[in-house]
Amino acid sequence: MSDEDTLVRVKHRREKSNSIGHVANGSARRFRVRSTASSTTTEGDDASGSAGADPVDSEEEDDDGSCPSHESFVDLKDSVRECLEKEPSERNGEDLAVLLDFMQHMSSFASLPMSIKRQLCLKMVFAVVNDAGTVVMHHNEKLDAWSVIVNGLVEVVKPNGERVEYKLGDSFGAEPNPAVQYHVGEMRTMVDDCEFVLVEHKDFCSIMSTIGEHIEKDRDGLTGEIVSETERRTVGSQVGLVLIKGKPDKLIQHLVDDRDSNVDPHYVDDFLLTYRVFIHNPTIIFEKLMMWFADGALRDKIARIVLLWVNNHYNDFETNDEMTKLLERFEGALERDGMHSQQSLLNIACSVKARSRAVVYARANKDDALHFSVQGGKECGCGIFISEVQIDSPAELCGMKRGDEVLDVNGQPMKYLTLAKAQEIMKGSISLTITLKSNVLGFKELLGKTERDGSKVSSKNRALAGVLTQARGSMPNVIPVKSTKAVKIGDVVLGFATLRRKTSMMDKLMTILKSSKEGEDIPDEARTTTNPLRPSRSNPDITSISQYYGPVKSECPEHVLKIYRSDQTFKYLAVYKETTAQNVVQLALQEFNMTAEGSLEWSLCECTVTEDGVIKQRRLPPQMENLAERIALNSRYYLKNNNRSDPLVPDDLAPEIMRDAQAQLLSLNAQVVAAQLTLQDFAVFASIEPTEYIDNLFQLESRYGSPRLEEFERIFNREMWWVATEVCSERNVQKRAKLIKKFIKVARHCRELRNFNSMFAIMSGLDKPAVRRLHSTWERISGKYIRMLEDVQQLVDPSRNMSKYRQHLAEVSQEPPVVPIYPVIKKDLTFSHEGNPTYCDKLVNFEKLRLIAKSVRAVSKLSSAPYEISSMAERSGGTISDALLHMNTFEGGNVATMRKGGRVIQPRKKVYEQALMVRKVKAYLDGLKVVDTESELDRLSYDIEPQQAGPRVRRAPSPSPSSVSSQSAESNSTDQRRFRGGGMFGVDSPQAVQKMLGLVQTSKSKGAPSPSQSPAVSGANRGLQRNLPRVSARQQSVPTIQRTPSFKQEPVDLNKESSSVTSFYGAGKFG
Predict the structure, then answer these.
(1) 0.85 cut: is pTM over it?
(2) CATH number of the domain at 355-438, please?
(3) Please, are residues 1019 and 960 in contact by the beta-carbon 8 Å criterion?
(4) What range(s) does the Ras-associating domain occupy (predicted)?
(5) Tell me: the pLDDT tens digits for 15-32?
């Protein structure tokens, strides 16, 4: 075989030679240089070609008036592709960073040191094979390159008939030794547009031979055993050593070792997140930290580490009594050594990070004394706190702790109760279900206030309150609670405390930080940073907590209630969330001009019509709050005279109330549906603790587990099945088409709201086989909606490991919040875990854990800020109202907020109607019933549209797209490539996204045969197949490859002439 025949073959490995003599051979399969210019020109043509108006569009009306914008992702830059297409010599530092980030998801690069990855990225060139079935390497062909597949699928048929597949991330070709090597077997592409990066054999050998030069091994002085490995790494202009492997003790020791923070800035964060993989008892770590704390030179460093630990992973302490006791010891040590600023920050972090928990406390009879004491109450301007717990008592055994705040007892809130009333409730029952939350800061505030008021406190309380006295120099103005101010609406004074209490825990935090920011004992992590990114929960900057947990509160009434009288007349009342039922009665009497009547004679009554038509009414407790959120769609609020027993709702009005309570998807506003999905998804996503990703990935038996992560996974699956269930359950074909259009609009709105998770779930539901086969339905979808769907699909093009989505995510993550696609998160973490060993020669592979921690940190930062309602409105066309915020109370923190000032006061009726739409959307989403099996969906699908024999004729959406096949050299012209006749990786061959989706799909049963493909998915609608995960069997979606052509098909050669990017087309032999 001549040198010309050994040119780099386009396949996983790219074999190159410097020979270019046969490029002009017209009968050969030639390479074509892909230029960015040609790609841009093509994009422009596409954009202009699709700009015409669709005749059908003008006839269609948007049922809910919420059609999304037509901004397209066609022009979204593919930064990975652009970097690959550059000559190696032209790549700059930014290009290198993009390629390194992309290659970290490739199994061939996963185990290589970072320095080796950098060198390979600097040498690699890019090649593409356009057509499936192309022979790219023959048996016994000389290997002159090492190659990695970055898109596509190939197969090698060995001489003995064995078949081996190479997929995304796999490598093949020359080994890193200078000996001449030959390929075994024949290699063919199995799909269109297979893409490769290649490194010439001599460069590959040269680079791989330097691995030892970058690695340093540290041995035990006595045994000579290797205890750690470090890599000399370059970051920008900085060069330093990074610990990549080590024994657990060495990794712990490295916490206090001198490190180059420019080269390895996140070691402490990464260790605190991932130590649980190789250390099962965290007390071992904390005890060592306590031992090092005794060393004055390490004291500040240890304090910073502990503050980071508490701030990032407080659940490590909440779920472990031994860790809690150690933390209390550490707090005592801070007090002893006069490190009051650190102590204050520790208390604040503990109070903010603590989660509510429920305990059950029981006594034998009511005469038995309580085994705990409480303090506080309304008279102190605070909640009820556990002040003392008897040792080894039932109270201690059930989980009560000193400093816990009592949130409710047997379902009754303690928020505004006096101490005497709270004690009465607790003593009134032998069994108490108590919701508690650790609030050390609030408890100390209570003790400090009690001391200043001259109250007598126990010796224990004096000792604890003394901490505040000693620290007063660094904690000014923190203890006093601001006096409350009454808010007046009309002539009614609303007596609720929360609205008028401007001092919050975050205000106290910021006061402490500002007052002591010049102090020398403030840890670095507590100082304000200049980072433009809003930090996340895992961010060591504790000052950032205020940005997440301290949203702006409304200064105007948030809600409007519709209050009826017995004569069915009504008034709209503007109220706050904290306005009580008694206050509403006073307001209603004023609005109805009934102020002459005493308010004590009237009460607020809730009348409900059940599904059976039964009318029920109940008087609401005078102190009940949040009335707007509590009321159901089939209920009304009435002003009732306590001296009369007449029914408030006549029987003939019950059907009307039931009709108004119906919430059907077609009657709901698509924007509001998308926004509600976004807030609900984000509420769960933002509550995921970083440790959950590790526990779930490594299947660790932790005390905390991964409850919120599993809920996030269930949400994705539920939304995906919901879409298919709604469509397949509708028997009317016109309504079915409207449902599909509604889902397309909701998906588009979700994209604009940066809720990519729901967007992808909806697209996946529409791509279910049971939905795709609905011929009569899809042919009623106009080109306008098909293009809208295709625009969304541009974002999740699976090419190059969904590089477009990853690039867009990187851009929008600069301004969180964002809800990412969960299957992609799962796929990346799974790959990092399964593609790298956790232990190497008895050493912990910390480089693997560092990679996983980096991914978790990036994901956590996406939830570092609440959703700002005004920004959501701007992104979605300006019609999203504050009702979305006011009608959603999420557990575990603030999910949404609003900007200060600038709020336009709207008519009460409009505010009520906006809130009513939100209530209907919430009721609809809460009552979803989904079919989560393929077989049942197929049954429903065939029931509404039986399979018909013979071909169907359908109208094509207008305008009809060009069916001309485009060359894959037009790198960004995904619109044209969608309509190619042949299969394409990620289009007709959906393995990439299908496998990704399979990671989170819990239901994989499929009884009925896979439905046939709808004609609507061809041509202009092929986008429905393009980027969505396939559930159908693989043989239906993978194109057939002709393995026995009538002529001898020669291999395709890659030539390193003027460009590093080469395209192949035509037939025959090059070279």
Answers:
(1) no
(2) 2.30.42.10
(3) yes
(4) 557-644
(5) 333 332 332 333 233 233
